[in-house]
Amino acid sequence: MDHPLTHLDTAGHARMVDVTDKQPTIRSATAAGLVVTSAETVALLRDGTVPKGDVLAVARIAGIQAAKKTPELLPLAHVIGVHGAVVDLTITDTGVDITATVRTADRTGVEMEALTSVSVAALAVVDMVKGRDRSAHITDIRLLEKTGGRSGAWTREDS
User: Fold this and answer.
1) Does residue 133 belong to any structural domain of this protein?
2) Which end of the chain is more exposed for a tag (fewer CB within 10 A), N or C?
3) Has 3 been labeled as part of a binding site?
4) What is the pLDDT of residues 3-56, one digit of tens each?
5) Annotated binding residue at 34?
6) What tens digit of pLDDT does each residue of 88-107 get?
7) How many distinct structural domains can be found in the chain?
8) Residues that bind substrate, according to the entry (predicted)?
């Protein structure tokens, strides 16, 4: 095996990786996802007439908050300083595209924070439109790129 599973000890038990000796570096990660909705819901989103209110504003704040709370949700994620979180939502003909970029200057990366941000922003969109669109669903949550750290930069080839 080229890369041992770092979150397992020699007995195969889950463990948090010790990053104490690592030096903080500037790191970022960008993730994306999509909430697919009906054409009627897209029209409500574009008109700003979703009964629950400003869907994109609520989802944006939910995504930012989620990035900061990632270690509370994922048991082996490190508590790190989230120094920047940008959540962009775009209404398309099929629903809402979501992109989140999270930045830090810390000992470990922010890939999970970016993925959590997109996931929770998408959940917020579904929550805001579910009364009008029971078919709304989340799809294609994925990491697009990451920078910094020992492994350097990585970009998804199909993005």
Assistant:
1) yes
2) N
3) no
4) 566 777 777 777 778 787 788 899 999 999 999 999 999 999 999 999 999 999
5) no
6) 999 999 999 999 999 999 99
7) 1
8) 76-78, 112-113
